[in-house]
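Chapter summary example.
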Amino acid sequence: MVSGVTAVVVTMFLRIYSENSDFNPITISQPQCPPGYCALGDYAQRTGSEAPSYGATVCLKQDNKLVRTPLKFTQIWSSEGGAVDDEEYSEASGAESGSGEESSFGPTGRSRVLAFWRAVPPSNQYTGLGDVVTSSYEQPIRSRYCVVHNSVVLTARRGRRVWVDNSGVVSLWAHAQSTQFLNLDLFVANGYRGPPADLYFRTIVPEVISPPPSGNLLIEVIPARDLNLLLRDPIGEHGYEDISVYVPQPPIGFVALGQYAERGIFKHGSAHVLAVKATGGGALVAHPIMYKRVWDTRKSAKTVESAIWRPIPPPGYHCLGDIATVAYAAPSTNTIVCLHWSLVRKGRRGDRVWWNRKSPLTGSDSQGSDVTVWRVGGGHDCEAPNTFVANPGFQTPSSERLLFKCVLRSNSIEI
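The structure predicted for these 415 residues follows.
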C-alpha cells in the first residue's frame, strides 16, 4: 500500500528483450499486472536470456485520481530509425507488436529493434517513475502503464548502471536500494554512456497497513496421511526426476497455505503442510484475488494437461506457496489462504524438489517450458509452511526474499 493508492507486489514478468553475452548481458521484462492494475515501468536485470529475469516490483490499482494513464510516450533511444508518432498509434491495431514480443541478439549483432521510452504525464501534476522498452518502433501500450500524482512521489537516488550498449550510445540505470523509501526495481534509460539527471529517480510514498486490532490464528500441521495425490510425473527408465504433488485435507474450518510436492513417486512419512484458521474477528487471513500461471505443459512433450500457478494476494497479505492443477484453467481462489503481513517472516529457500531438465515427458522441446520446483523453508523465528514455489528455468530464484516466506512461530498466534 502506498499513500492513498492500492498496490500489489508482482514477481511475474514477460521477457521483452535479452542479450546473452559474456561481457554485457541484459534481460528486460514487463511486469504482468492483475486486471485493473498498471505498471510503473519495466524491469531490467544484468543477466542473459538463459537465466530467469524474475525480480519484484509493484503494480498500482487504477481506481482514483492519484494514478493516471500516460498521455503518450516519448522515445529516448532506438537501435535504428525513428518512432511512430502518437497519433499514428492505435492500441487496437498495434497492441501486441509494440511490447509483447520477446527479442534477442543474434551472433552478428542486434537481430531486431530495441527502443526505450519515457511516459509523458497528462499534466505537470503527475510524474512517471520508470522507463519502458519495446521491440518495435511503435509506442508502448498506454493502458499497461501509469504515472502517479506528485503528492505521493518522493525523491530517490541513482543506483548502479545496469547495462550499456556496446556502442556506448545508451545505458540503463537502476534506482538505489534504500530503507528510507520504497524500492520499485525500475530503471531509467539515458541516450549516452553517462548517468541520467538525478531528477529522473523517483519513488512513491509507502504506507504500512496496520495489523488487525484483534484476532487469533490457529495453526494445524496436516500430516502425510491427509495429503491426497493430485498429479504424478510417471516413472521412466531414462534417469529423469519424478515429481508427485499432493493436496492437503485440513480439518473443518482450516484452510491450507499451499500444496505439498515431493520428488519421486512415494510419499515420505514426514510429509506435511501447514493449515490455518482465524478466529476472533481479526482479518488475519484472506484468499488470493487471482492467480498468475508460472508454468504449464503446453510447450512440452507431456500429454497430460497440468500447470503451476502463483497466487496474487490482496494488499497487506502474503501467500506462502504455489498451486498445481491438472488442467490449464486457474484454480479456485478458495483453495488456499494468504496471511496478514504481521504474521509472516522472511523464510529460506528449501531443497530443490524437482526440475524437468532430463524428463522426456515434461522436458523442454521449445523455449519456455523449463521449470524448477523449490521447497519453502522456515527461519529462526518462523515455521516453514512446507509448501513449494516454482521458478521458470533451472537457476536459483533471484527474488528469494519475496518467494520464500514462513509463519511466525507459535501454535496459536494472538493479536
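To summarize the output: The CA atoms of residues 5 and 13 lie 22 Å apart.
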